[in-house]
């Protein structure tokens, strides 16, 4: 199997961390792909052109982080799976919240990468407010002992914060959020985290947006 990714993508990082955490590196080879590029190695497999994309040995290309995690989880025994099932609604809710926060921050980041005169102050204000609102809720969850399990929500949270830390520094996420900061700092020792730290700089491996 091949996992297409881009080193700066927080979505792809969740899948890359899952491959390492689940011990699947001998079965899933990570391959870098350029984004928003008509000659990207990814496009012949996946017309959507987004990472992560998991290409199975029969050529089936699975796109979208949650679908990729579902496939990766299916390769290990149930007790080791990362995605919470419906029997764990709180963990499932936490995972969804983190992904929702990531979607908003990705929109904010893309807006900031436009030439200044093309940016929408309204979109930036909306997404900045959403980011503050959701990360404040995540801080409360973490302070109450949430995110204790190393599940998909935990990896998504680490990826979200890592993206803000290194690629979306417009968001001062640490300010007033000691529980998230402590969780994030402690997470850096985990091999799946340490081995997938994104490069600094804005956006992903893609040309500026217009
Ligand atoms: N909803 C998707 C989002 C994935 C996504 O937006 N990936 C970005 C990189 S961070 C991408 O591939 N962008 C390329 C493009 O938009 O063409 C998921 O959950 O996987």
UniProtKB/TrEMBL annotation:
One of its GO terms (molecular function) is transferase activity. It holds the Pfam family GST_N_2. Signal peptide: none annotated. Residues 1-80 form the GST N-terminal domain. It comes from the Bacteria. InterPro entries: Glutathione-S-Trfase_C_sf, Glutathione_S-Trfase_N, Thioredoxin-like_sf. The keyword Translocase does not apply. This is Glutathione S-transferase. Keywords: Transferase. PROSITE patterns: GST_NTER.
């Amino acid at each position: 199997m091949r996992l297409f990714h881009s080193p700066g993508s927080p979505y792809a990082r969740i899948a890359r961390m899952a491959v390492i955490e689940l011990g699947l590196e001998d079965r899933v080879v990570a391959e870098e792909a350029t984004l928003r590029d008509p000659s990207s190695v990814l496009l012949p497999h996946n017309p959507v052109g987004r990472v992560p994309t998991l290409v199975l040995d029969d050529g089936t290309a699975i796109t979208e982080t949650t679908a990729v995690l579902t496939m990766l989880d299916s390769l290990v025994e149930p007790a080791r799976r990362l995605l919470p099932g419906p029997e764990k609604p709180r963990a499932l809710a936490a995972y969804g919240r983190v992904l929702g926060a990531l979607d908003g921050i990705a929109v904010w980041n893309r807006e900031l990468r436009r030439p200044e005169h093309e940016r929408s102050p309204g979109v930036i204000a909306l997404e900045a407010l959403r980011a503050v609102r959701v990360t404040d809720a995540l801080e409360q969850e973490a302070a109450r002992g949430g995110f204790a399990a190393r599940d998909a929500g935990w990896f998504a949270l680490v990826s979200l914060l890592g993206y803000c830390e290194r690629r979306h520094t417009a968001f001062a996420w640490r300010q007033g959020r000691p529980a998230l900061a402590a969780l994030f700092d402690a997470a850096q020792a985990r091999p799946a985290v340490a081995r997938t730290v994104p490069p600094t700089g804005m956006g992903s491996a893609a040309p500026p947006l217009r």
